[in-house]
Specification:
With 313 residues, this protein is α/β, with parallel strands linked by helices. It is built from twelve helices and twelve strands. The protein has one domain: Inosine-uridine Nucleoside N-ribohydrolase, Chain A (Alpha-Beta Complex), CATH 3.90.245.10. Strands 3-2-1-4-5-6-12-9 form an eight-stranded mixed sheet, sandwiched between helices. The chain has a two-stranded antiparallel ribbon with strand order 7-8. Helix 1 links the parallel strand 1 and strand 2. The site of alpha-D-ribofuranose has 15 residues, from helix 1 and helix 6.
Length: 313
């Protein structure tokens, strides 16, 4: 299987943190070119610092972490401390990072990395608002042929939204950016709430992380204990949905996931349904598909993979 050359664009966030760890634990499948950070769950100064905290937890001070956009393209920033806590990594107590933040802006890193790459060779994984990726495409549209795939966490198709009844958080925060990326014509793969709400960290799965008896297992256990509580109380789930690691697991073993090619569009006009991801699931309008949207996964295989890989760190 060919390795994916990955730029992971994130807003850590406990679930982003687990996605970073999964990527770092999977060098056979993932060549992590860099981590770009964006304002989302918490403001940018925290997301860039949290990304470095997690790399240091994994013993990977060599990973290049970049700071990107501190706000969405058009709208005011909406954050989610009500879910992630004030630090964005509540449930853990990681020290201030000492590894350096890269000087280069995240958007320039995305542009330069793509410009220097072969066609169809870069996989960009946005697991927060897509502001950085949209800015890179707007600044240098010539990078688009260099992008093999965009595999993102975001959206809600048959599920209701989690930020408004119509919209999931990543798309709601920057719907214009998501639309720029979707309409760029790249090979677009989306992991919406329809699949991530089936990736539940049940108490038994949480215990498996803690039973790793490692700093990584302990931190994941503490973070997810905290992160789980909101969705479990809102939806009555028997565990919290583990959104962002689904993107990395897809790159490692796409057979874990199911979905279909559909025509997808994103609401950017109506305040009532701002950020809604509308998939023509039954091809009623008979338009060309422009996205592969996942709606199911083998959750036991997902957690077996995740637990095994975290055990390597
Ligand atoms: O709606 C879930 C998404 O929003 C996840 O990426 C989570 O980290 C937050 O960014
Ligand atoms: Ca995220």
């Amino acid at each position: 299987m060919q390795k994916s050359n990955v730029i992971l664009d994130c807003d850590p966030g406990q679930d982003d943190a687990v996605a970073i760890l999964l990527a770092l634990a999977s060098p056979e499948e993932i060549n992590l070119l860099g981590i770009t950070t964006v304002a989302g769950n918490v403001p940018l100064e925290l997301t860039q610092s949290n990304a470095r905290r997690i790399c240091e937890l994994a013993g990977r001070r060599d990973v290049r972490v970049f700071a990107g956009a501190s706000r969405p393209l058009m709208r005011d920033l909406v954050t989610a401390e009500w879910i992630h806590g004030k630090t964005g990594l509540d449930g853990s107590d990681l020290p201030e990072p000492t590894m350096p933040l890269q000087e280069e802006h995240a958007v320039n890193f995305i542009v330069q990395t793509c410009l220097e790459a072969e066609d169809n060779s870069i996989t960009i994984c946005p697991i927060g608002p897509m502001t950085n990726v949209a800015l890179a495409m707007m600044q240098a549209p010539q990078i688009i042929p260099k992008i093999k795939q965009v595999v993102c966490m975001g959206g809600a198709i048959k599920e209701f939204g989690n930020t408004t009844p119509a919209a999931e958080f990543n798309i709601y925060v920057d719907p214009q950016a998501a639309k720029v990326v979707l309409n760029s014509g790249v090979d677009f793969v989306m992991m919406p709430l329809d699949v991530t709400h089936k990736a539940l960290v049940t108490p038994e799965r949480l215990q498996r992380f803690k039973d790793l008896n490692s700093p990584v297992g302990d931190v994941c256990g503490g973070m997810l204990d905290y992160f789980n509580r909101f969705d479990m109380s809102r939806y009555g789930f028997d565990g919290g949905p583990l959104h962002d690691p689904c993107v990395i697991a897809y790159l490692i073993d796409s057979d874990i996931f199911k979905g279909r090619e559909v025509h997808l569009d994103i609401e950017t006009s109506s305040e009532l349904t701002m950020g809604q991801t509308l998939a023509d699931w039954w091809n009623i309008m008979e338009r060309e598909p422009n996205a592969f949207v996942c709606d199911d996964l083998d959750h036991e295989r997902f957690f077996q993979l995740l637990t095994e890989r975290l055990g390597r760190l």
